[in-house]
């Protein structure tokens, strides 16, 4: 059971106000953590404000002081997820000076993030019964696509290839990675996560050879 009640003490009006702000931040973080805990155990359709409130040991109206609705809470988690995935992708890009190798590392980072935070990934990409209007999430997703597109453009330039069609190529790679991850998460890929990662790397290598050597 998650309990988020601060015992921090502070003196004076400023100390009291700072303590209240800290308590609100702690409770907000606790509410988000509780939603993820329920999702991991029971799936996103089972997540309700009432269950979250029970887990953090507050009443539902207190949860509504932080989030207007379950959808509002989910959007916050989705934004957190996209930020985390972008960070993993950018770290992978920085791991190699060679853009071709960097793209392979980025594909591995995609799969690792998905399998390490499956609840967030499901919410981000509309799996497990979660859905949002595309417009709500387009900006966050485009940042990841831009990171991949920039690296692919570098690889194409290295081989003297035209950068025309780079976004189409990124969409193909994105669809391949996501498709394999989704199949593994649904239990429909023999070999599970490990096989998804192996096939993802093989597929990205194949795409790169076709695009760079063709």
From TrEMBL:
A GO term for molecular function? DNA-binding transcription factor activity
What are the UniProt keywords, alphabetically?
DNA-binding, Transcription, Transcription regulation
One Pfam family this chain carries? TetR_C_33
Q: Does the keyword Transcription regulation apply?
A: yes
Q: InterPro entries attached here?
A: Homeodomain-like_sf, HTH-type_TetR-like_transc_reg, HTH_TetR, MT1864/Rv1816-like_C, Tet_transcr_reg_TetR-rel_C_sf
- Superkingdom of the organism of origin: Bacteria
The UniProt record lists the HTH tetR-type domain at 25-85
Which residue ranges does the Swiss-Prot or TrEMBL entry mark as DNA-binding? 48-67
Q: What protein does this entry describe?
A: TetR family transcriptional regulator
In which organism is this protein found?
Rubrobacter marinus
Per the UniProt record, the lineage of the source organism begins with:
Bacteria, Bacillati, Actinomycetota, Rubrobacteria, Rubrobacterales
């Amino acid at each position: 059971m998650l309990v988020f009640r601060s015992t921090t003490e502070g003196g004076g009006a400023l100390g009291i106000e700072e303590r209240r702000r800290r308590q609100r931040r702690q409770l907000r973080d606790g509410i988000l953590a509780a939603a993820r805990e329920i999702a991991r155990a029971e799936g996103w359709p089972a997540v309700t404000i009432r269950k979250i409130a029970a887990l953090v040991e507050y009443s539902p109206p207190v949860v509504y002081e932080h989030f207007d609705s379950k959808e509002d809470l989910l959007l916050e988690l989705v934004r957190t997820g996209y930020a985390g995935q972008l960070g993993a992708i950018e770290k992978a890009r920085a791991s190699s000076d060679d853009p071709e190798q960097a793209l392979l590392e980025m594909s591995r980072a995609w799969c690792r993030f998905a399998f390490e935070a499956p609840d967030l990934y499901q919410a981000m990409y509309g799996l497990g019964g979660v859905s949002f209007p595309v417009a709500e999430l387009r900006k966050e997703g485009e940042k990841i696509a831009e990171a991949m597109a920039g690296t692919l453009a570098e690889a194409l330039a290295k081989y003297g290839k035209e950068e025309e069609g780079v976004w189409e190529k990124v969409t193909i790679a994105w669809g391949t990675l996501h498709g394999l991850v989704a199949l593994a998460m649904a239990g429909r890929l023999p070999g599970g996560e490990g096989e998804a990662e192996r096939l993802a790397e093989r597929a990205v290598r194949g795409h790169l050879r076709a695009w760079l050597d063709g």
